[in-house]
Amino acid sequence: MEGTGIDLVHKIFTIINGIASISLAIYVFVYQLKRDRKNEQKAQEQRAVNNRIELFNKLFLFPNFEMIEKYFKLVESINKRLTEEHNITDNDKNQMITEINSETENLRYVFLDKLKYIEEDFHKELDQILTDLQDQMAETIYPSSEQKDDISGVIYGSKTKFLKAIYSHIPKIQQ
After folding, report:
1. Alpha helices by DSSP H, 57-151
2. Taken in order 120, 121, 123, 128, is the CA torsion positive or negative?
3. Percent of the chain at pLDDT above 70?
4. Across all residues in the chain, what is the average pLDDT?
5. Are 107 and 71 in contact (CB under 8 A)?
6. For 117-154, what is each residue's pLDDT tens digit?
7. Cβ 82 vs Cβ 143: under 8 Å
8. CB atoms < 10 A from the CB of 137, how many?
9. What is the DSSP letter of 59?
10. Cα 59 off chain centre by
11. Phi, psi dihedrals of residue 2, rounded to the nearest 5°
């Protein structure tokens, strides 16, 4: 009889061990499944963010980057002409103003106006940078005093602010 009591206890512990093993396996399976779902959700959110950034780059930034560069090169060339030439006629000055205004409006129309409907504050920020530069160029072309200022630093600062605003806006797309 002693053997049967020990056998019975051994069988009970074997059953308890089996139940514990199955419970642990189920717990690990459920835990892993929840963790996988969370990781998949995070991965989907990251893919959505990457898609928004890629869309922004493809629709707004890349197609217009050449135009942005062209605009700032025009402003730089006009400033260089103003600082190097001494006898610029009023007709030439009017032509410079017309070129700047035309390119500014073109940049606004092609690039900024698309942003207005998506990110109004971002649009306003970039538009203000262009407006300030346009005003500064007009003041340089037709100065209120006799002093001619080289505004290369202002142009460089405006270009830097403009591009920095664009690139710093990319993380905001993630939200």
Report:
1. 62-84, 90-107, 113-116, 120-141
2. positive
3. 91
4. 86
5. yes
6. 878 888 899 999 999 999 989 888 887 666 566 678 88
7. no
8. 25
9. I
10. 12
11. -65, -35
Rounded to an integer, what distance in angstroms lies between the CA atom of residue 65 and that of residue 72? Answer: 11
Cα dist. 45→38, 52, 114, 172, 174 in Å?
Answer: 11, 11, 25, 14, 9
Please give the angle made by the CA atoms of 60, 62 and 68, to the nearest 5 degrees: 85
Distance from C-alpha of 118 to C-alpha of 165, rounded to nearest angstrom: 16
Nearest-CA neighbor of 89 among 141, 134, 48? 141
**Smallest Cα–Cα separation from 97: which of 82, 111, 110, 85?**
82
Query: Which amino acid type is present at position 88?
Result: I
What's the structural domain count of the chain? 1
Instruction: Give the mean pLDDT of 69-93.
Output: 89
Answer for the pair 143, 117: CB distance below 8 angstroms, yes or no.
Answer: no
d(CA 1, CA 103): 104
148 phi/psi in degrees, rounded to 5: -100, 120
pTM of this structure: 0.67
Structural domain for 20, as ranges: 2-173
Q: How many CB atoms lie within 10 A of CB 133?
A: 23
